[in-house]
Design goal:
719 residues; 4-stranded antiparallel sheet
């Protein structure tokens, strides 16, 4: 008969309680019930065993055999003259069979210390030798602790972050504290449990209130229990710990074991691979910043599973505990959350608790819980994979970690990382837009710094149209930005105007004269774009105007823009990101048609390719309608009447149908020149263009706005 035992004292947070759950399951399965299983239910751990609650308590009080956990390679571990060795001596002199493995381990530690470091705490060189000797002679039950605390690499020892630097954190030695807690719980001579131990056990198992906790250190595992200012009633308190909880916590840590890994594609030395452990990142947490990221030891993503799992399954989960992105293992918190979004983790896991080992309280590290991340498929997160091409994202984040990278650029990269994290967790159109906007800003910043270009050797890889579709919120600003981003000519997209890159967008070009998108605002930037494109077309000998596009908006968006009803800054940010993606042929319907001023209708034909005018029947096959720099400069200077007169004259010369009377251009009072110039650069649909040029021949165009009329060309149709 099996029993479901709800361990309400074992919760996913803090880290100490999570490890405690693992320790209890491991000890029960290894020492009394091999068929025992465990799983997470809500906010606590459930143990399924042939033991009932009473039997579980009796097992720990009367039968539990502690795992030998020692660290003779550390000063303060009890093995050296200046150490507190009372607990170690008590265990070494014990007579009960329950503590026999501890006695054997202490004897081994003393023998190696006497041979290699008899005068005191070992030097770094002696420490490496000491570790090697202990690893070679350690019995099986000691090896599980050793492999969780130390990895003997080919160059030097490595220490997994969960257990500090080989079983200690600063002056706090976990192993000596473990032995101290053991002698508080178990009589070293008779082997029975103390009266205090019987009072402490229900608190650690069932979460019951526990009086008279031990005033001892808990270390990095329980930030809320370390004491300090404002930790209780009064000004300050010391650290309090339930000895059973501390013991079970370290027993659970043994399920983590480090391993050496070697990159297949390189000849670099082995690196540390630790279950679900990655480099720390500030992204995705409101409680950490870039300084925390630099000082942090690592991040630990602890799995929660809802299916009953035996010790063997859980050991396999932690032994192979890694998440992947494609073919590579994840490297940091952003990679990890992306892997979760792609289901690149072991099946059966329902969520991960994210912890970071952050420096707090001076130079002490604390395992700080950051977030609970459910495991679910997020298709939009697949878009982020495109940023991995050519190692772009890795190079960019490497740049952010360099000491000589300007703070502004570091800040922009961290902002991008935060947006990437949010898309992998909870994607929506606004979050995807934020990624695009940040990419545009970062691309511009990197391109303007020679040092940054050396690290990030290539610009942002070209993104697919999926980015545009996923970011489209049908707002006028987005549609205008998408239309502007689609402006092109043979050999010249919009990309080089937004960042110092070559026309292909694949190489940096810091000397480019096409790059004009800086700090003058949207209207100024678009005026410069129009001028540079005309100059470039003349230099290249193009006969067609360089304002072709794949997508256009309707009169409603143009009217809103001319009226100042749209957000220029948002359009500016969106254009910088949308030029990085493939342009669409069309988007969802925008605003309904709206009146446009006569000045716009007069000048718009000069800003569209002549082939389109011929297709609409506005321009004869042999006719030409050139656009001169002088007209752009008139509009930029606010001299709208002169610009409209110039445009009107060119329309007559080109043979475009205009009213027979009056022969003068229409009035244009109240029209803002720079804004009109920017609006003329925004591509519109062929149907909208047809409606505007057909109204040019109307005599009343001089006295009223050119209002949209019935469609003369099917919406979205292109020649």
């Amino acid at each position: 008969m099996t029993h479901e035992i709800h361990l309400h004292g074992c919760t996913p947070t803090p880290l100490a309680h999570y490890l405690k759950a693992l320790g209890i399951l491991r000890l029960v399965a290894e020492q009394v019930d091999p068929e025992a299983t465990g799983h997470w239910q809500g906010e606590h751990f459930v143990l399924t065993s042939r033991l009932d609650q009473e039997g579980l308590e009796r097992f720990f009080l009367e039968e539990y055999r502690p795992t030998p956990i020692i660290a003779p390679w550390n000063g303060g571990s009890g093995f050296y003259p200046k150490d507190n060795a009372a607990a170690l001596n008590g265990l070494a002199e014990s007579e009960t069979p329950r503590l026999a493995p501890c006695r054997a381990a202490i004897e081994l530690g003393r023998r190696v210390v006497a041979a290699l470091s008899p005068e005191g705490s070992p030097s770094d060189r002696d420490k490496e030798r000491l570790l090697t000797y202990i690893r070679a002679d350690a019995p099986e039950d000691l090896l599980s602790w050793f492999d969780a605390a130390v990895l003997l690499g080919s160059d030097k020892p490595h220490y997994p972050p969960l257990l500090g630097t080989g079983g200690n954190d600063g002056r706090l030695d976990f192993t000596n504290n473990f032995m101290q807690r053991l002698v508080e719980l178990i009589d070293p001579r008779g082997g029975g449990s103390s009266a205090a131990a019987r009072g402490w056990l229900p608190g650690t198992l069932w979460g019951e209130p526990t009086p008279l906790l031990s005033a001892r250190a808990v270390g990095q595992f329980s930030p809320g229990g370390v004491g300090g200012p404002n930790a209780t009633a009064g000004f300050e308190t010391g650290s309090l710990v339930n000895p059973w909880g501390f013991v079970f916590m370290l027993e659970g840590a043994l399920l983590f074991a480090a391993a050496a890994t070697r990159r297949i594609e390189g000849t670099t030395s082995g690196g540390l691979s630790y279950p679900f452990t990655v480099r720390a990142t500030a992204a995705g947490s409101g409680s950490t910043g870039s300084k925390d990221e630099q000082a942090a030891r690592a991040e630990l993503w602890l799995p929660l599973w809802a299916r009953r799992s035996g010790l063997g399954e859980i050991k396999g989960l932690f032994n192979e505990g890694r998440a992947t992105l494609g073919r590579r293992s994840v490297r940091d918190g952003i990679d990890f959350v992306r892997a979760i979004a792609r289901l690149g983790v072991d099946r059966g896991i329902i969520a991960f608790h994210r912890y970071a080992f952050l420096m707090r309280s001076g130079k002490a590290y604390l395992a700080t819980p950051l977030a609970l991340q459910p495991v679910r498929r997020v298709p939009e997160a697949d878009l982020l994979d495109e940023l991995d091409r050519g190692g772009f994202l890795d190079r960019l984040r490497s740049l952010a970690r360099k000491d000589n990278t300007p703070n502004l650029l570091v800040s922009r990269i961290h902002r991008l990382e935060g947006h990437l994290f949010s898309v992998a967790v909870r994607p929506d159109r606004e979050r995807i837009q934020r990624v695009l906007e940040s990419l545009g800003t970062v691309q511009q910043s990197v391109g303007m710094s020679s040092g940054a270009r050396e690290v990030v050797s290539r610009p942002v890889p070209q993104l697919t149209i999926g980015w545009v579709e996923a970011a489209d919120d049908a707002s006028p600003e987005f549609r205008i930005a998408a239309a502007l981003a689609s402006v092109r000519a043979p050999g010249l997209p919009m990309t080089p105007h937004l960042a110092p890159v070559d026309p292909s967008g694949r190489e940096w070009d810091p000397t480019s004269r096409l790059f004009v998108w800086r700090h003058g605002g949207l209207l100024n930037s678009l005026a410069q774009v129009a001028e540079r494109r005309l100059l470039w077309a003349a230099h290249e000998g193009l006969t067609e105007k360089p304002f072709d596009s794949t997508f256009g908006v309707g009169e409603g968006e143009v009217a809103a823009f001319l009226a100042g009803a749209t957000d220029d800054r948002r359009i500016e940010r969106l254009v910088a990101g949308l030029v990085l993606a493939q342009s669409p042929d069309g988007l969802d319907e925008g605003l309904p048609p709206a009146p446009l001023p006569a000045a716009y209708a007069v000048l718009k034909p000069l800003f569209v390719p002549e082939r389109l005018l011929r297709y609409l029947g506005t321009l004869a096959p042999e006719g030409h309608l050139p656009l001169k720099l002088a007209l752009l400069r008139l509009l930029a200077a606010g001299r709208v009447e002169e610009a409209v007169a110039e445009g009107w004259q060119r329309l007559r010369i080109a043979g475009v149908g205009l009213p027979a009377s009056p022969r003068r251009p229409p009035a244009c009072a109240g029209v803002d020149g720079p804004r009109l110039l920017a609006a003329l650069l925004v591509p519109i649909t062929p149907a909208a263009l047809a409606r505007q040029v057909r109204r040019l021949a109307s005599a009343d165009s001089h006295t009223e706005p050119l209002v949209a009329s019935a469609s003369l060309t099917p919406e979205g149709e292109t020649p």
